[in-house]
Amino acid sequence: MSSEVDAESADLECELDNVQGMVDALSSVRWKRHQDAVIELSEHGIVLVVEESSCVQAKVYLQKELFVRYEYSAQARVRFGVSLGLFVDSLNTFSRPAHSSTIEIRYPGPDMQLLLRSVDSLDACIYAEIRTRIPETISWDYNFEPAGSTPLSFTVKSAALKEAIDDLEWPGSSIQVSLQPAPPVVTFRGEGHGDLQIDFMYYANTDLLTAFHCDREESHRYKYKFLRATTSNIPSSVIKENRGSKLTIGRGGMLKVQHLVSVAKQSNSHSHADSAGYLQPSRIAYIEFFVKPEVDDDNAND
User: Fold this and answer.
1) How far apart are CA 165 and CA 93, in angstroms?
2) Where is the signal peptide (predicted)?
């Protein structure tokens, strides 16, 4: 093997000590069986982008601080396309208890592959090559801007958000998301064979709706399948930790949904937490979804 030559030509070499955390983060944006993703590499870390029909876009931010080693030598950002399913399935091989180890990620290989290799396994070295390609399109610019001087946002427990959206399922339908300041409430309303409405009252359920910022009434509709994509694959680790998911409505009704996924090494994850049990930012992967609203209603805002 010409590992020395490969190492010299690599734009990125990094090592990660919690593969399962990375699997959880990437699985959270895998809402279809077959999905293409664009990976962007830089000196700051790795960003993975998935989108569909220019209506929903998801980004996974893996900052360089998540890695035990991160060496980037390219002069500019590097972008390439990859099968998200193949990437996650390959990582899953390294995350199984029998083979759990630190992995090295390197790009590019001799034929522009994404290379994965276990580096501290006592039994055997696991190795994977993932074919990459030139992205066919440039990711659409979501251009997320605040909808006025006061951000319209709320933070709700991730498990409650997922349950609410699952309960609102009407195939092919839309979900109306409304915020109003007095009384402070967030309403999810679905229409299908009947109407179903779920209210999150801010003061009544402070343990459920943990933050609320709204100074005016606002309402937008979103295609159910795109709204569901934001929660359908939230990893069980996030549900168990009962983290909060933050939703923000921007200019024109653009919806941003943010989740946090722990990538702390599980065997000593307590060492990355403070006395209150909050994980350090350096051990968190940031997940963002952007969902465009339906614009065929009369109350769509410009």
Assistant:
1) 31
2) none
For residue 146 the two structure tokens come to 């605040």
**What is the topology classification, in CATH, of domain 152-291?**
Proliferating Cell Nuclear Antigen (3.70.10)
Backbone dihedral angles phi then psi of residue 253, each to the nearest 5 degrees = 90, 5
CATH topology of 3-130 equal to that of 152-291? yes
Q: Cβ distance 255 to 293 under 8 Å? A: yes
Q: Which of 101, 95, 91, 99 is nearest to 130 (CA)?
A: 91
Q: Which helix (H) or strand (E) holds 86?
A: helix 84-95
Averaged pLDDT score across all residues of the chain? 83
**Whole-prediction pTM:** 0.86
Question: Was domain 3-130 assigned CATH 3.30.360.10?
Answer: no
CA dist 168 and 164 (Å) reads: 6
Long-range contacts formed by 197-201: CB under 8 A, 24+ apart: 198/164, 198/167, 198/168, 200/154, 200/156, 200/160, 200/164
Lowest mean pLDDT among 65-69, 135-139, 233-237, 252-256: 135-139
Q: What is the pLDDT of residue 18?
A: 87
Tell me the pLDDT tens digit for each residue of 1-41.
Answer: 444 444 567 999 999 988 988 999 999 999 888 899 999 99
Query: In degrees rounded to 5, what are phi and psi of residue 111?
Result: -115, 35
Of 77-91, 98-112, 250-264, 278-292, give the range with the top mean pLDDT.
77-91
Whether the Cβ atoms of residue 50 and residue 292 lie closer than 8 Å to each other: no
Spatial contact of 139 and 53, defined as CB atoms under 8 Å apart = no
Q: Which helix (H) or strand (E) holds 158?
A: helix 158-167
